[in-house]
Every structure is written in structure tokens, then in C-alpha cells.
Design goal:
This protein has 173 residues and is an alpha/beta fold. 36% of the residues lie in helices and 25% in strands. α4 (123-135) runs parallel beside α5 (152-158).
Length: 173
């Protein structure tokens, strides 16, 4: 009887521990909870072939439409796989807010755009980011300029979703 009890207790504690440590399950729950909000931040989650998540607000999307597709005055959408977050990579996109200027420098501030949380630097990862962004406001397909740090996977992943954009490397390579 004691062995059966111990085995049952061990299995129960393992199930509790696995539920508490399941990052993907936690973020799916947060995404589902946010969908009832008027302005969710976690927009899309994919579990396979790798877990990925796109985070972006309505304000960011509106500003991107305003500052990235106007031919007379357009900013560059920068996409950079910046840092590791545990088992995940965080790819941050940026753009310039062209209606604001720093008092001292006169430069427009750099704003954070959509964020991709993923595990591999593959074209399919960046395609997921681009497809999610262009599905929210389809006008974002008309982004004019995309800058990278010479990551071929980014170029290969986003180019089909931004057919009118000129993609260039920050290093000129």
C-alpha cells in the first residue's frame, strides 16, 4: 500500500510541476485572456514546428501605417533578433516616430514595433512575424523600407509579405 501511495504522490507532483513550468501553455492562456480586451498585446501564438508568439499593440500598428508606407516621408522598419530569453529568442522591430523630435538633437525617437518570440532564426520564423503583422492591418504590406543586420533568414522570411519594400543591411553588405 505504501508503494502505491508513494507512486501516486510522485506522479501527482510531477504533473503539477510540468503544468507550472510549461511556458507555452502559460502564454497560450495569456493570449486567450487578452483576446477579450479591446487592445490585446499578445496577438498570435503558434506551437509547431516551433513555439512562436507575436506581440504588438493597436497603437504600434497605427503608427507603423502612418510612418512606414508614406512615400513622401517614410521611416525604416528595423528587424533585429536581439537577445535570448531563456529557451527563446526575442526579435524586436523598430521604426521612427516622425511626428516627434528630441529637443536637443532634433532626431525622431525610435519606437518599438512588433516583437517576435521564437526559438530558431529561420525564414519561417520571420515569415510568421510578417504574416501576422500584415494580417492585422493589410495596409502594412506596403511598407517601403526594411533594415536588417544582414540576416538572410529575415530577408527570405519577410520579402514575400512586403512585396514593395526595399530591404537593406545596416552594414551595407
Amino acid at each position: 500500500m505504501k508503494q502505491v501511495y508513494n507512486t501516486t504522490q510522485t506522479k501527482t507532483s510531477l504533473v503539477k510541476a510540468s503544468k507550472e513550468k510549461d511556458d507555452l501553455f502559460s502564454i497560450i492562456e495569456k493570449c486567450k485572456a487578452q483576446q477579450s480586451l479591446t487592445n490585446p498585446f499578445i496577438r498570435s501564438i503558434q506551437a509547431a514546428p516551433e513555439p512562436m508568439c507575436v506581440c504588438v499593440t493597436d497603437r504600434q500598428l497605427t503608427e507603423m501605417e502612418k510612418f512606414l508606407i508614406n512615400p513622401s516621408e517614410a521611416s525604416v522598419l528595423g528587424i533585429d533578433p536581439t537577445f535570448n530569453l531563456g529557451k527563446f529568442l526575442v526579435t524586436v522591430s523598430t521604426y521612427k516616430h516622425l511626428q516627434l523630435q528630441h529637443k536637443r538633437t532634433g532626431n525622431s525617437p525610435t519606437m518599438i514595433g512588433p516583437i517576435l518570440i521564437h526559438q530558431r532564426k529561420l525564414p519561417s520564423s520571420y515569415s510568421y512575424l510578417a504574416s501576422t503583422c500584415t494580417s492585422l492591418p493589410p495596409a502594412l504590406r506596403e511598407i517601403l523600407f526594411i533594415g536588417t543586420d544582414d540576416e538572410k533568414a529575415i530577408y527570405n522570411g519577410v520579402s514575400t509579405f512586403f512585396p514593395w519594400s526595399k530591404t537593406f543591411s545596416a552594414f551595407g553588405i
